[in-house]
Specification:
Blueprint: E1 2-7, E2 11-18, E3 21-29, H1 35-49, E4 56-61, E5 65-66, E6 71-72, H2 86-93, E7 98-103, H3 104-115, E8 123-129, E9 133-139, E10 142-143, H4 166-170, H5 172-183, H6 191-196, H7 207-212, H8 216-240, E11 244-248, H9 256-265, E12 279-282, H10 289-296
Parallel strand pairs: 1-4, 4-7, 8-11, 11-12
Antiparallel strand pairs: 1-2, 2-3, 5-6, 8-9, 9-10
Helix pairs in contact: 3-10, 5-8, 8-9
InterPro entries: ATPase_NBD (IPR043129), ROK (IPR000600), ROK_cs (IPR049874)
Pfam families: ROK (PF00480)
Family: Belongs to the ROK (NagC/XylR) family.
């Protein structure tokens, strides 16, 4: 039996199965106050519940890792991971013959490349728009690696010399903040204001409903988001020129309005020879993108 593990800043998932076939699925909410130790305790408990011996383990970790040693470089969200030998820790607790530890965006890219929106393309660039912004490149079914501890960190790409990064304007928390700030100037009958209601976090999840109902503020935010994302992606296209760009993560649930807007805006930022640019697709595997990618490692 093969095991796939997703270790994020807010959730932990373990799945057992083969490729995209999930036979066992465990999901936990991460308690940040318990740090890495709390996550490891969940994994330890789950390993003892599995009915069959584990043959291989793939891990998608939310942060930079040394893929050659299985050691975590750091986590930007959970304390206690810096320098931790996760690969060796798993080796001591299982009979797995092969263990691979990867950055979660790389793993998500692999999942979408093999079993999702990129399965008919050779070169797949994946960008995750979640609490942060990350990226991964898969060529002919293999993850591209640079020097440890990472590569394709598109969220840290600078949009100007002042230090504005793609993550600072296109992540979920950035859009949450933008909606929160916009609400202070909206009238009571604003559709966006009504659908957000009393929510004080995760406001971005209401963006699609307000957009579909014709709210002008929601339409402006989607347009701004798409434009900044297209500009950032243009640099990835000029450097890598993939066949397809797959949009994943929570913000990608904004769906077709975001995808089509990025597709329309991207050519304006590309050199003539590269226009109209790669295909733009929405991720297809949903919350299972990283676990399925981890199984595929």
């Amino acid at each position: 039996m093969n095991l796939g593990i997703e270790i994020g800043g807010t959730k932990l998932q373990l799945v057992a199965g083969e490729a995209a076939i999930l036979r066992h699925h465990f999901r936990f909410t991460v308690d940040k106050s318990r740090g890495a130790a709390g996550i490891l305790a969940h994994i330890d408990d789950t390993l003892r519940q599995l009915p069959e011996p584990i043959q291989t383990i793939g891990v998608g970790f939310g942060g930079p890792v040394d893929t050659q040693t299985g050691r975590i470089a750091t986590s930007h969200q959970i304390e206690g991971w810096a320098g931790f030998g996760l690969g060796e820790w798993l080796r001591q607790r299982t009979s797995a013959q092969r263990i691979r530890v990867e950055n979660d965006a790389n793993v998500a890219a692999l999942g979408e490349a093999l079993h999702g929106a990129g399965r008919t393309f050779r070169q797949v660039f994946y960008v995750t728009l979640g609490s942060g912004v990350g990226g991964g490149l898969v060529i002919d079914g293999q993850i591209y690696h640079g020097m440890p501890p990472g590569e394709t960190e598109i969220g840290h790409l600078r949009l100007d010399k002042a230090g504005t990064t793609l993550e600072s304007v296109c992540s979920g928390w950035a859009v949450d903040r933008e909606i929160r700030e916009a609400q202070t100037n909206l009238p009571p009958d604003s559709i966006l204001k009504q659908v957000v209601g009393a929510a004080q976090t995760g406001e971005a999840r209401f963006l699609r409903e307000a957009f579909d109902r014709g709210d002008p503020t929601a339409q402006r935010i989607v347009g701004r988001l798409a434009d900044d994302l297209a500009f950032g992606l243009s640099h990835a296209v000029h450097l890598l020129h993939p066949d397809v760009i797959v949009l994943g993560g929570g913000l990608s649930l904004t769906g077709e309005p975001l995808r089509s807007a990025v597709e329309r805006r991207l050519p304006a930022y590309l050199m003539g020879a590269f226009q109209p640019g790669p295909a733009i697709r929405l991720a297809e595997l949903g919350e299972n993108t990283v676990p399925i990618g981890a199984l595929s490692l």
